[in-house]
Amino acid sequence: MAASSNRQEYVVGVMTMEVEGKNSERFHRHVTQAVEVFKDAIITALGVRVVLLAFEGPHLTPTAGAYAPLDFLHIGMTEKLERDVHFMLIVTEVDLSATTFSYTLALPSQLTNVGVVSTKRLNPDFWGDREDAALTVRRLATLLLHTFGHLLNLSHARDSQNVMYNFAGVDDLSAMSYLTPAQREQMRQALPREAHERTSRNGRWRFVLHTLVRNWRSIARAVVRANPFRLATRLPTMITAALSVIIVVFFSAEIWDVGSTVELYQLVLLSAVAVLTATAVLYRTFAFGGVLGRGRVWAESTIVTGAATGLSLILTMLLLFVVFVGLTYLGTVTIFPRKLMETWPTVDPAVRTLDHVKVSLFVAALGVLAGSLGGRADSKDLVRGVLFIDEET
Q: Does Disulfide bond show up as a keyword for this record (predicted)?
């Protein structure tokens, strides 16, 4: 069922994803009670509807004892569309892996409007103390509120009793109990802007264009958060493959012949094609699915996600291309023998600055193209983590 674009009611889905099935009854009881606390707090603050959902038995494989949160995120994106909710909070009973810490309790993804929460370490009995169901429920409800606050663009608070406090451990959750009137008002204002879950069955290109214009702030914020410099550091295989090709072709006579004789506008066109092609190759590798639901429905959230992913990747490819051009040009003016510049080209000597620029553009374009093929071997979780995860809590 498609969501109407003029519907005023916003729906938050809280979905359980039980993976291992241990202490199943206790897990569902804690989640149900925590959702009631979460529901009271959210309805009071925003007047939204909260629904409890379930996704039975996702077949996931742990790594070093923990599960990849992006697997849950991917499922959550699909289920959010299929179950017609604006925000999805996924609750699982297993440990979630993290890149910054040894484990994580929650990961919000504002770009996708999905948050992933783990109950694994919330009960005191995990730490060797006596089981405390009430404390576990209170911690889980706070964690749901904290994660949902991030989905509505709330920043961290300094007060350790505030729900949005940047807590360091599980014990801090017990004291986090309130939202300020200013935070509640910020959530109310952000809700219609961030709840991008309009859908369309026809007029798809008009719908896509309107979606991009309507959500340009969310897209721009996601691109800034991803940061091309940061994203480039998650592509070591691509960079290694690109530099290997650049070094080989840089010392090839044919490259100097072509690079010095081809027209500058042709090299600019080649460079543009190389960057766009590399972006397309990596997009197919790292993007999350398509934009269509099972009912041939185009969803606003997946269009926003795809646009932010594509824009982040193309800016990263442009950054790497510029770096490769700079490195190649530096090599031509510092270490490349002038005699070879004069004798390798068969038409004219390549000793002018313009010749060096053209050779650098040509070599960098080849490097980006070759590197994109190697980049497909880079870790999907690391790259997607930069693109889709706001923080590890």
A: no
CA distances from residue 280 to 237, 342, 372 in whole angstroms, order as listed: 17, 38, 9
Identify the burial level of 334 via C-beta atoms within 10 angstroms of its C-beta, where 0-12 means exposed, 13-18 middle and 19 or more buried. exposed
Q: Which residues contact 217 (CB under 8 A, 6 or more apart)?
A: 193
Structure confidence at residue 45 as a pLDDT band (50, 70, 90): confident
Alpha helices in the chain (DSSP H): 24-46, 69-82, 133-151, 181-194, 204-214, 216-226, 228-232, 236-250, 253-261, 264-286, 300-334, 338-343, 353-375, 380-388
Q: Can you give the pLDDT at residue 202?
A: 62
Q: What is the pLDDT of residue 294?
A: 53
pLDDT tens for each residue of 249-285? 999 988 898 877 889 999 999 999 999 999 999 998 8
Pick from 181, 190, 184, 117: which is nearest to 152 by CA? Answer: 190
Q: Which amino acid is at 251?
A: F
3-state secondary structure of 125: helix
Total Cβ atoms within 10 A of residue 359: 29
Tokens of 358: 């053209």
**What structural domains does the chain harbor?**
11-194 (3.40.390.10), 204-388 (no CATH)
